[in-house]
Every structure is written in structure tokens, then in C-alpha cells.
Amino acid sequence: MKLDKFDIEILKVMQRDATVSMAELSQRVGLSHTPCWRRVKKMENEGIIRKKVTLLDAKKLNVGVSVFIYVTLKNHTGDSLTRFENAVEDVEEIVECHTTSGDKDYLLKVIIKSIEDYEHLLKSTLTNLPLVDHLSSTFALKQVKNTTELPL
């Protein structure tokens, strides 16, 4: 789908506030209600707008420890990668999983309550993920920037 300036502006507004009403959205982007609604529906149908979510404050919910973990697997057959990726899906503390280039296979982001809880997760779950050869953990000390907005 080719996006024009109105589509881009709709996406920018919705990234900042997904609860904005269609009337407010159409006013902000300079379209009438119906054409704006059609554009939003088309972008939803095309999968450009995947879903609308509520963002939570991790610190206020006492889950403010972020850990980044590089993972190296024992082998790289198609089945082993799939087994690892499927297992990652079942660990709720893993909030992101990326395949990477270079000498590491994956980068995981874990959000957890405490270092002690991470140690338990590491020993009980992460080291037992399929075909894990090596894990290297780094704790985030301070979050300098946090945005959910894509640069459009």
C-alpha cells in the first residue's frame, strides 16, 4: 500500500495516542470524518496498523529491571531455530526476541522485578531453552530514551 501525506499524518497521531476519537483524528490531519475513517480501516486491513495497545509504566508496576541477553545456540539447523523461537514465546518475561547478525544468534529483552528474580529465571528457564550454548546478560542501568513511535 502506498502511503500519502494524510496516511503518514494519521499514523503519527495514532502512534502518540491510539485512543484519539475519529472526529479528533480527522480534525488533526485535515480530513473529513468518513475519508479519515476509510484510510484507518484500509491501513488496519493491510496490516499497517496491527493493533492498539495500552502502555504501562514498568517502574510503577514494580517490574522495572531490564535485562538484555545475547544468546548463542549450539547449532543452526532450521528445526533448532524454530524450537528455540517457539520456546521463547512461552516465557512471559521475555518481551522481545531478535535474530542478530555476527557471532550471537539472538538478542532477548527481559523485563523482571528484581535481580534475584532474574537469577531464578536464568537458572530455571533461560539456560534450559532448546539448544542454548551460551548466554550473556547485560542489565540496563537507566533508560535514556523510550519511544514506541516509528520514525515516519
From TrEMBL:
SUPFAM superfamilies linked to this entry: Dimeric alpha+beta barrel (SSF54909), Winged helix' DNA-binding domain (SSF46785)
In this chain the HTH asnC-type domain maps to 3-66
User: What InterPro entries does this protein map onto?
Assistant: ArsR-like_HTH, AsnC-type_HTH_dom, Dimeric_a/b-barrel, Tscrpt_reg_AsnC-like, Tscrpt_reg_AsnC/Lrp_C, Tscrpt_reg_HTH_AsnC-type_CS, WH-like_DNA-bd_sf, WH_DNA-bd_sf
Q: Which Pfam families match?
A: AsnC_trans_reg, HTH_24
Which PROSITE patterns is this protein grouped with?
Answer: HTH_ASNC_1, HTH_ASNC_2
Gene3D superfamilies documented for this protein: 3.30.70.920, Winged helix-like DNA-binding domain superfamily/Winged helix DNA-binding domain (1.10.10.10)
CDD domains on file: HTH_ARSR
> Any idea which UniProt keywords this protein has?
DNA-binding, Transcription, Transcription regulation
Q: What is this protein called?
A: Lrp/AsnC family transcriptional regulator
What is the taxonomic lineage of the source species?
A: Bacteria, Pseudomonadati, Pseudomonadota, Gammaproteobacteria, Alteromonadales
